[in-house]
Amino acid sequence: MRFLRFLFYFLLSLILHWEWSIPAWILLICHFVFGISIWWFVGAFVLYVVFVRLYVHFIGGMIRLGNSDETPKDNKNPYSHGFYKNSSKKEDLQTMSYGSDGDRKDE
Question: Which residues, in sequence order, are bridge partners of residue 106?
């Protein structure tokens, strides 16, 4: 199933990026008109297919990189709302006091 999905997207990319193959088709026309070697067309067409395949892999890699799951990290900000509420140390709660102006003062 994974191979079929890759094949579908690869063929779709070949169709959508057809303009990248224009140099190969020009070389094919030159083969019939001027008699140049057919290998120029084959080389340019293979280069086009390789380039599209690398493009598909690059875009797919960027998508997988962007969709990677990150584990949530612990909140280590002492000024955040829930820091002292979830603290396992009792002395954190006991040493926290507030002055007359409302600012927190650690003793």
Answer: 96
Local structure of residue 33 (DSSP, 8 states): H
User: For residue 75, is it within any domain?
Assistant: no
Encode 22-35: b = buried (16+ Cβ within 10 Å), e = exposed. Answer: eebeebbeebeeee
> For the chain, what is the domain count?
1
Is the pTM value of this prediction over 0.85?
no
Residue 42 tokens, joined: 């084959």
Note the pLDDT tens digit of each residue in 26-72.
Answer: 999 999 999 999 999 999 999 999 998 898 888 888 887 877 677 77
Q: Is 38 part of a structural domain of the chain?
A: yes
Report the C-alpha gap between 13 and 18 in whole angstroms.
8
DSSP classification of residue 72: P
- Per DSSP, the three-state class of 69 is coil
